[in-house]
Specification:
Elements (H helix, E strand, L loop, with lengths): L1 H13 L5 E6 L4 E5 L2 E7 L4 H5 L9 H9 L6 E3 L2 H14 L3 E5 L5 H4 L5 H11 L2 E4 L2 H11 L4 E2 L20 E4 L10 H11 L7 E5 L4 H6 L9 E4 L5 H10 L2 E4 L8 H8 L4 E4 L14 E4 L4 H12 L7 H10 L3 H16 L11
Parallel strand pairs: 1-3, 4-5, 5-6, 6-7, 8-9, 8-11, 9-10, 11-12, 12-13
Antiparallel strand pairs: 2-3
Helix pairs in contact: 1-14, 3-4, 4-6, 8-12, 11-13
């Protein structure tokens, strides 16, 4: 979410706008200018008591975020999380200016009911904002079916200058997955089981995974931390590091369920690397053609191993990297920013990008 906010802000700045990012931290109020972006950090009081009582997270900073909105002459407020949208909606009622919520997940009933006030917060945020955006058609459909709310779809944007082929593929077949191993729905344990089957055909193959920050949780999620042929890399958000990892791989994979989009797959495609994913959530909206990868229909190790083998065979195709790159270009950061600017203009009644709309 942090990188999404920064990427959108940079895109708006490149169009001549002056966005301000309001976030929170466990400290005194602070305002900084970071590479052209004004960042306001409001205090975030401790939330331990609320979390232990089962309440939704990230509630304690909402009043301070609202005050930060009221003290500036903003044209528009854009929230990337439902609790932040509470502040944006309250500011909208006070100022008469529009508010937008981008909902980054899938509003499944078990998740909505897993924390106190979570469903209430999301419903209030949805009805309090002028526009609601989801990052995939699947998420929009889920929002409609679960809460009866219509949303427009704006997929995440990929910086094609940051994510591009920067290294040659490794000589041995290499599979990469940058999903968090400790999150059960990411199915990293399933991937390791599929990789074990794959190695009977491709004995020199290697699997690159991100080292879990909580090894115990990863183990409980079924991840074998000592599986043969697996190379663990440190967690990173650095596009330069990720681009090199994706470029060197023969295939990138995301076997996750309930994934609202699957941005890591587009990042890999931008680096010229084909992809494999589960036909669930928003992933089929990325892997929509066999020329760039493969979808598996069920969470099954044998099916995943066969899919990985079929995509490894694509390595010999000299046009593969260009096809992958062309698909990623359909999710470029430039298109992403233009879609949001179009939304902002419609809410503000503007006709030209020359008229600033500051979220």
């Amino acid at each position: 979410m942090e990188r999404d906010a920064r990427d959108l802000s940079d895109g708006l700045i490149s169009h001549g706008h002056r966005p301000t990012l309001i976030t929170s931290h466990p400290g005194a109020p602070r305002q900084t200018l970071e590479n052209g972006l004004t960042v306001i950090r409001v205090p975030r009081p401790p939330q331990g008591l609320l979390l232990r009582a089962g309440f939704e997270s990230y509630l304690t900073h909402v009043p301070m975020s609202y005050l930060a909105l009221r003290t500036r002459g903003f044209d528009l407020a854009h929230a990337l999380y439902p609790t932040d949208a509470l502040a944006a909606a309250a500011w909208k009622r006070a100022s008469g200016c529009p508010a937008v919520l981008t909902y980054l997940g899938i509003p499944a009933a078990p998740w909505l009911d897993a924390a106190r006030l979570r469903r209430w917060i999301l419903v209030r945020a949805l009805h309090g904002c002028d526009a609601v955006v989801t990052i995939s058609r699947h998420a929009a459909d889920a929002l409609r079916s679960s809460l009866g709310h219509e949303a427009r779809v704006i997929p995440p944007g990929i910086d094609l200058t940051a994510f591009q082929r920067v290294a040659e593929r490794l000589p041995q077949p290499t599979i990469v997955c940058t999903a968090a191993a400790e999150v059960p729905r990411k199915n990293v344990g399933l991937l390791i089981a599929a990789f074990e089957r794959l190695r009977s055909r491709w004995p020199s193959a290697s699997l690159v995974l991100v080292r879990p920050q909580h090894p115990g949780r990863a183990t409980r999620a079924g991840v074998d931390l000592r599986a043969p042929g697996v190379r663990w890399i440190d967690p990173t958000e650095d596009p330069a590091v990720l681009a090199r990892v994706y470029s060197q791989a023969w295939v990138a994979v995301l076997p996750a369920t309930d994934e609202a989009f699957g941005k890591v797959l587009v990042e890999a495609l931008a680096c010229g690397t084909p992809v494999v994913g589960l036909a669930d959530g928003g992933i089929p909206e990325i892997i929509d053609r066999p020329e760039i990868g493969c979808l598996i229909e069920r969470s099954d190790a044998e099916a995943l191993a066969r899919a990985l083998a079929s995509v490894l065979e694509l390595e010999a195709d000299p046009a593969l990297a260009d096809r992958c790159r062309d698909r990623a270009a359909e999710f470029s950061l430039e298109l992403h920013v233009e879609r949001y600017l179009s939304l902002y203009r419609s809410l503000l009644g503007l006709r030209s990008a020359a008229e600033p709309a500051t979220p």
